[in-house]
Design brief:
The chain is an alpha+beta fold and 79 residues long. It has helices spanning 5-10, 12-31, and strands at 37-38, 44-48, 55-62, 65-73. The model has no long low-confidence stretch (mean pLDDT 83).
Length: 79
């Protein structure tokens, strides 16, 4: 698992915990591919709770795999 550098700089212990939370939810996604909410015909959104905010994974389901497009913090400015 790759460290989330910005969080590791603020709180090394939180960065380890967030990695575990993200990893656990992505493992679940491998089994339950439709667990996330559809946001358009091709993509789904999986909310990963962590602390007061959490993370969001945007993904698509292909016949033989799940492709993670991006993962971001829910409070991150994405404009």
């Amino acid at each position: 698992m790759a460290r989330i550098d910005w969080l590791a700089a603020l709180s090394p212990s939180a960065s380890v915990k967030d990695e575990v939370a993200i990893h656990d939810h992505l493992k679940m996604l491998a089994v339950f591919t439709s667990v996330g909410r559809a946001i358009n015909p091709e993509e789904r959104k999986l909310v990963i709770p962590f602390g007061r905010a959490g993370f969001v994974a945007i993904y698509r389901i292909e016949p033989d795999r799940v492709v993670i497009g991006r993962i971001f913090h829910s409070r991150q400015n994405r404009t």
